[in-house]
TrEMBL record:
It comes from Pristionchus mayeri. The chain crosses the membrane at residues 43-63, 380-402, 445-469, 606-625. GO terms for cellular component: plasma membrane. It is found in: Cell membrane; Membrane. Residues 387-620 form the Neurotransmitter-gated ion-channel transmembrane domain. This is Transmembrane ion channel. It comes from the Eukaryota. Coiled coil: none annotated. Belongs to the ligand-gated ion channel (TC 1.A.9) family.
Length: 634
């Protein structure tokens, strides 16, 4: 018995057809037994009958009977057919084989191949699974010897040398035969479907500055070229460009490639396999640098969708139609599981068709195009360690100035300025590997907010320093005392010190206009009080027109001025000089200003950390729990 595949089992039983034919022949001849008894030499009429049947079936049917499937059907028919005359067995069996093959091929092969073709088109994944022959195939080239021909093998365990194809293709153009300049289906007005697959062996890191990446990939493509169908049991392997260049091949290229070349160590990494049914499989290893227009608004928490676009350069879509070969997880885009990128991880792969009309000098045309997307997510740990943590530490260090003495201006300014300059340097270093885009990135938001926070720390100390060094010469305290002093000085010359009337303070101090005292009034205010001896008022002054100052008074005034200059604050030497000396700032106002400065530092210790913690919470919550809308990039 012969094991038949499901497709071959679908062929109608030839034994039943042969029995029907034998019954009709017997009826026409008056019975098979009487016909044989009436002829002493039965071999001659049988041979004549066989040749007549062969002439009716035609030479084309005999040629198709050489097909592999027809031979298998014929073998099945030979084993199941039984003749009535044992003497005819040795002579009739070879002829019956050819008749059965011709009849089955003539009646059933067209229907069988057509149904098979429809099934294969519906099940795209089974397109290349089994060996099958197109009904439009008219010639199978006998290029292998009988010991190397027969049932074709499915698995590639052996191969025939590539020079056998020279018997078919010649120099590329054979008169009445193969033509390397025509697509396989072009002569019959049909398109040639090219199935494409990629396998990425290695991949380099994605460069955001140049917006590209490099891949070391295997480009595989398959198509049917029935003109190359042969009778060999094993496929024909072609590794020489001399022979492969004489075979028609699709002119594919990478649309978004910047640079690409074929690996040629130690030999050109390319092979072409031609199967017995005309299936051509081509594979090559290439290095290609592909452009990827990245969207960096969420950098470094972004997701990139980089395309790999393949298109036919010269053949329009009506001649060559590209499609992805989809089968399992490794097709159409397989990735080496050992690939480890520095800062990216592949999350998924997507596929689509991208055929669009192109305007030309005359009219327009469509070229078949397919595109695959490699979707990758950036690993943020590197940026957290190198950027986020150091900048956050600088912001926290700048807050230490809130706990320093407000009088320590050099320490507070140095700490804040150093933090700001260091953060600026780190920001420039983090951005130097990024392109100069016109939109704000997530990293820019973090760095800008950190810089702004440190700048506000410096601005806060500016207000603190302002209140700490503020001098108040014209204040409400001085206005009230000056008004009282002026009123008292006017009555001082006419009355004694005991009889001086008390000057009432006005209801509103702000209503008293401030006037700078004259030189005489100023001298009167700073002179020591008069001394009464025996009822006579004496002043500590000299007659004869000398100035009303003593040596002790001048030394005391000089000491007060020197102490005020040497003190850190205007009120430090308040116990030395007179608090009503208008040449010195108001001590009460200075104390109030100092309290205001300390309150600013006190509130800043709470406001700045709270603001930064709130910002960090919102920032990381937004970029962690919100989905990144991946924009299609070509």
């Amino acid at each position: 018995s012969v094991d038949l595949s499901p497709r071959e089992a679908a062929v109608p039983d030839v034994h039943t057809r042969m029995q029907t034919t034998e019954t009709k022949r017997r009826a026409a001849g008056g019975g098979g037994g009487s016909w044989m008894r009436s002829h002493p030499h039965p071999a001659v009429p049988i041979a004549i009958t066989v040749f007549l049947l062969m002439a009716v079936s035609g030479v084309e049917a005999i040629a198709e009977g050489q097909n592999l499937r027809a031979n298998m059907v014929a073998e099945h028919s030979r084993r199941t057919f039984r003749t009535h005359d044992p003497n005819m067995m040795n002579f009739a069996n070879p002829m019956v084989d050819e008749i059965a093959a011709s009849i089955s091929s003539r009646l059933d092969m067209d229907e069988f191949v057509a149904s098979t073709r429809e099934t294969l088109e519906e099940e795209e994944e089974d397109y290349f699974r089994e060996i099958w022959y197109d009904r439009n195939t008219t010639k199978i080239h006998n290029i292998c010897e009988e010991n190397r021909s027969g049932p074709a093998k499915m698995n590639l365990t052996w191969s025939e040398p590539g020079d056998l194809l020279l018997k078919i293709v010649g120099n590329g153009v054979v008169k009445g035969g193969y033509n390397m300049f025509m697509a396989p289906g072009q002569a019959k007005g049909r398109e040639t479907k090219i199935h494409v697959a990629l396998y990425i062996e290695s991949m380099s890191s994605f460069k955001a500055q140049t917006m590209d990446f490099e891949v070391d990939t295997y480009l595989a493509m398959g198509w049917f070229d029935r003109r190359l169908a042969h009778n060999c049991s094993y496929p024909i392997l072609v590794t020489s460009k001399v022979i492969s260049d004489r075979i028609w091949q699709p002119d594919l290229y990478f649309v978004n490639s910047k640079f690409a070349y074929l690996q040629e160590v130690t030999t050109p990494n390319m092979m072409v396999i031609v199967y017995p049914d005309g299936l051509v499989f081509k594979s090559m290893r290439i290095d290609v640098t592909l452009s990827c227009s990245m969207e960096l608004k969420r950098f470094p928490m972004d997701t990139q969708r980089c395309p790999v676009t393949v298109q036919s350069y010269a053949y329009v879509e009506e001649l060559v139609n590209l499609t992805w070969f989809k089968k399992g997880d490794d097709f159409p885009l397989g990735v080496n599981t050992d690939i480890r990128l520095n800062d990216m991880v592949i999350t998924r792969k997507e596929y689509e068709s991208c055929s669009n009309p192109y305007p030309m000098f005359r009219g327009q045309a469509r070229w078949s195009c397919i595109r695959a997307f490699i979707v990758m997510r950036r690993l943020v740990l590197f940026h957290i360690i190198q950027t986020y943590i150091p900048t956050g530490m600088l912001v926290v260090i700048s807050w230490m100035s809130f706990w320093l003495d407000p009088r320590a201006s050099p320490a507070r300014i140095s700490l804040t300025i150093t933090s700001l300059l260091t953060l600026t340097t780190m920001s420039n270093g983090a951005r130097q590997d990024l392109p100069q885009v016109s939109y704000i990135k997530a990293l820019d938001i973090w760095l800008t907010f950190s810089q702004g926070l440190i700048f506000l720390v410096l601005l806060e100390y500016s207000f603190v320093s302002f209140y700490m060094t503020k001098r108040s010469f014209d204040c409400v305290h001085r206005r009230a005392y000056q008004h009282k002093k002026l009123r008292s000085s006017q009555s001082f010359n006419s009355k004694s010190e005991e009889d001086r009337p008390e000057v009432t303070q006005p209801q509103s101090i702000e209503e008293i206009p401030f006037r700078k005292p004259s030189s005489s009034e100023y001298d009167e205010m700073i002179q020591p009080p008069s001394i009464h001896l025996n009822g006579v008022k004496h002043r500590n002054s000299q007659s004869n027109g000398h100035p009303p100052y003593s040596l002790s008074q001048g030394l005391s005034k000089c000491a007060n001025n020197a102490a005020a200059l040497m003190s850190a604050t205007p009120h430090a030497a308040a116990h030395i000089y007179n608090k009503f000396d208008f040449t010195k700032p108001c001590q009460k106002c200075s104390l109030n200003n100092e309290r205001i400065a300390k309150k600013i530092d006190h509130y800043s210790r709470m406001i700045f950390p709270t603001t930064f913690i709130l910002f960090c919470t919102i920032y990381w919550a937004y970029y962690t729990y919100t989905e990144d809308t991946v924009v299609e990039t070509v």
